[in-house]
Amino acid sequence: MSEDDTVRKQLATCLFEAEQLLKLNQEKHREPVSKLYQYIQAGKYYASVSTHLSTGTTDTLTPMYQYKINDACNTISQLLLSELKQGGVVTGKR
Predict the structure, then answer these.
(1) Backbone torsions φ then ψ of 90, nearest 5 degrees
(2) Which of 38, 47, 28 has the alpha carbon at shortest distance from 68?
(3) What tens-digit pLDDT sequence spans the chain (94 residues)?
(4) Where are the domains of the chain?
(5) Which site in 24, 33, 39, 82 is 20 to 30 Å from 48, CA atoms measured?
C-alpha cells in the first residue's frame, strides 16, 4: 500500500468516526467535527496551490496542515471512544 493510500484510508476512517460521533450526539460534538472539516477544506486549498509555492513555504506549511488534520482526527477518535465507553448508541435523541 502506498503512502497516499494509507493517508486516504486514515482520512476515510476519521470521516467515518466523525459521522458516528455526530449520530451519537450532534449538539455536543458539532464543534470538533466542524473544525475537522475546516482543516480539510484549508488543506485542500493549500494542496491546490502548494506546487506554486517556495520550498521553504511548503516545508513549513505541509507538516502544519498534516498536524492540524491528524490532531482533529485524534480528538474525534478519543471523543468517540469516550461516548462508546459510556454506552452511547444512536437513538435519535440524547
Answers:
(1) -80, 115
(2) 38
(3) 898 899 899 999 999 999 999 999 999 999 999 999 999 999 999 999 999 999 999 999 999 999 999 999 999 999 999 999 988 776 654 4
(4) 3-85
(5) 33
